[in-house]
Amino acid sequence: MAPVGVSIQVRDDHVVIDNGILQLTLSNPEGLITGVSYNGVDNLLEVLNKEGNRGYWDLVWSEPQGSGIFDVIQGTHFEIIHEDENQVEVSFTRNWDPTLQGKLVPLNIDKRFIMLRGCSGFYTYAIYEHREGWPDFDLAETRVAFKLRKDKFHYMAIADNRQRFMPMPDDRMPNRSQKLAYPEAVLLINPINPDQKGEVDDKYQYSCDNKDIKVHGWMSLNLRLVSGKLHPVTSFDPAGLSNKI
After folding, report:
1. CB of 204 within 8 A of CB of 180?
2. What does the domain layout of the chain look like in residue ranges?
3. Among residues 38, 49, 206, 53, which one has the least CA distance to residue 122?
4. What is the pLDDT of residues 35-80, one digit of tens each?
5. Model confidence at 230, in pLDDT bands (50, 70, 90)?
6. Residue 162, CB half-sphere, CA atoms under 13 Å: how many?
7. What are the CA-CA distances from residue 157 to residues 91, 150, 164, 238 (Å)?
8. I need a surface site. Which of 64, 86, 142, 152 has the fewest CB within 10 A?
9. Which of 166, 154, 164, 169 is nearest to 222 (CA)?
């Protein structure tokens, strides 16, 4: 049977894109990723978090010689770029003007999301425009982030020889951990899994050089995320995983 076509519903505060396999919910007009529904799971993102803290584009910027400013990019205007049964592409834009100097990064930002017919994932990219005469600034980092459900995703695979069951987010709380030299690193003193007691949890342990990255990331008992696309699995097979797009 041929896959069903892609459809879009535009509501007052959300946009829902559905191809019969995957359903993506975005806040309107901010363009924050509030829901990813797949394989009978109503939301793969952390439902305990507020909607603005589940999936989003962000950046860290500063004025010259200034300190870094973290910004979760929220659009102010929504537009459908393309819509037919084979593909839907949507846009969430935020424009800059001189009255925003020092408050927002001097960029026009256009966040795009695309869903294709028969595809078990979605695509996202962003367009950053800095016009002539606008203030100089430093851009330290920009990314798209997804916060997955802690009751579903427990296993991480980075390489054939770097994979494991992970500490829980709760293990980083003050009653279960001890702060170390920098905020990302903690000593696990009372983890939920007692076998992990005495370990150091540090997100940089789970990173790779860009030249070595193929696919890597989180795994669930019944789901895996591969190159931004979701596929069902029946066991902890760590090959070919990624929670990045």
Report:
1. no
2. 7-56+72-134, 153-232
3. 38
4. 999 977 899 999 999 999 999 999 999 999 899 999 999 999 999 9
5. very low
6. 13
7. 32, 16, 7, 6
8. 64
9. 154
CATH of domain 7-56+72-134: 2.70.98.10
Among 44-58, 65-79, 156-170, 177-191, name the one with the lowest average pLDDT: 156-170
The C-alpha angle with vertex 245 and arms to 90 and 230, in degrees rounded to 5, equals 90
Pairing of strands 122-129, 108-116: antiparallel
The rounded distance, in Å, linking the Cα atoms of 130 and 109 is 9
Read out DSSP for 33-69?
EEEEEETTBS-SB-TTS-GGGSEEEEEEEE-TT---E
d(CA 91, CA 124): 10
What six digits make up the tokens of 192?
């939920």
pTM given for the model: 0.84
Cβ(245)–Cβ(123) below 8 Å: yes
> What is the Cα Rg of the chain in Å?
20
Instruction: Residue count of the chain, please give it.
Output: 245
d(CA 165, CA 35): 25
Residue that has been written with the tokens 């789970």 in this structure: 206
Q: H or E stretch including 8? A: strand 7-10
Q: What is the mean pLDDT of residues 91-102?
A: 96
User: Which token pair is 244?
Assistant: 């990045």
Q: Which residue has the tokens 């990255």?
A: 213
The single residue listed with the structure tokens 């920098």 is: 182
Residue with the two structure tokens 């952390």? 46
Rounded to 10 degrees, the C-alpha dihedral 76/81/84/85 comes to -60
